[in-house]
Design a protein that fits this description.
mainly alpha
Length: about 300
């Protein structure tokens, strides 16, 4: 089973690498022409040919792909066209901050979703239930970039609670809260629905018949069922967190890999874009595996169904 899962992961990464390589190389504009303009190099065929040879862009596309994926697997991710630094070094320097923001935001959303969802299920149509519904709608309707700009203006300009830009505690906390906001409403509603579904099961009615209060029965017997639903929904939210991380990093000027990606898109830094796609694909595979193991630990029937 583990060997089959690993084989699927490797096949998925290879498919993603080929698709990413094809799409990125089909992007308009030439990185050589962009580099010549950016660095005020002589506009001559010799200069262009030298850059193409240096970056390996003079080879046929299939040889470029095979050369890149072979070196990528061995840990050589290439040199950034824009910075001239090894991409592995750039990513290792920026990845911890991006992981801190993304994982902390998801973790905060999941932790807050449990009490909000529990109280919503305990008193449907109460004010907390209405609040959780509002969160779910607002997180889908309000763009994170717009909300971040408003919060920056209020907290940094009007109230002066934080420094608006840069790698500081206030900017990181704001980024984590924005990521959590994007997922909190959805996760709380999923947890609430899991609790309500568990209330219709025979084991819940049996718990009430034994003398447990509704709150105790919900927590002791329905919580595990709802937690499985919450963890399953984290899979899709982990993907959304990647886009949210890119937004908040650019917004707050945080030097993570998503900001590095945005800067690299403008100059068509092929190797950076390809490496970013592979890192994101690996992130999704790891998150799916971690959530799958957690679900199997909570409910062995889930593992048997896979």
């Amino acid at each position: 089973m583990a060997l089959l899962t690993a084989a699927r992961a490797v096949a998925s990464l290879l498919a993603v690498s080929l698709l990413a390589f094809s799409i990125i190389r089909a992007m308009p504009s030439d990185p050589v022409a962009i580099a010549i303009r950016a660095y005020n190099l002589p506009v001559t065929p010799e200069v262009a040919q030298t850059l193409r040879r240096q970056w390996g862009l003079d080879l046929p596309l299939y040889r470029q792909y095979l050369s890149w994926i072979g070196r990528f697997v061995l840990g050589d991710w290439g040199i950034s066209f824009r910075t001239g630094e090894p991409i592995v070094a750039e990513f290792l320097r920026r990845l911890p901050l991006s992981l801190e923001i993304g994982l902390s935001g998801l973790g905060l959303a999941a932790l807050l979703a449990i009490p909000i969802g529990f109280l919503s299920a305990r008193r449907p149509r109460g004010w907390i239930d209405v609040f959780s519904r509002f969160l779910a709608i607002a997180s889908q309707a309000i763009p994170a970039f717009w909300l971040g700009l408003v919060l920056l203006w209020v907290l940094a300009v009007e109230w002066r609670f934080m420094h608006p830009f840069g790698d500081n505690l206030g900017a990181i906390a704001l980024a984590i809260c924005l990521i959590a906001f994007a997922s909190l409403g959805t996760l709380s509603r999923v947890y609430r629905r899991g609790l309500l579904e568990a209330q219709r099961e025979p084991f819940f009615r049996t718990a009430l018949a034994k003398g447990l209060s509704p709150d105790a029965a919900l927590w002791r017997h329905a919580h595990r069922h709802a937690l499985c639903a919450l963890l399953a929904s984290l899979r899709s939210e982990a993907g959304w967190a990647i886009g949210g991380t890119a937004t908040v990093e650019v917004l707050a000027g945080l030097p993570g890999i998503s900001q590095f990606l945005v800067q690299s898109i403008a100059v068509r830094d092929y190797f950076v874009l390809q490496a970013y796609v592979m890192v994101v694909a690996f992130w999704m595979i790891v998150m799916n595996a971690a959530i799958g193991w957690s679900l199997a630990a909570l409910d062995p029937r889930w593992a048997e169904a896979q």
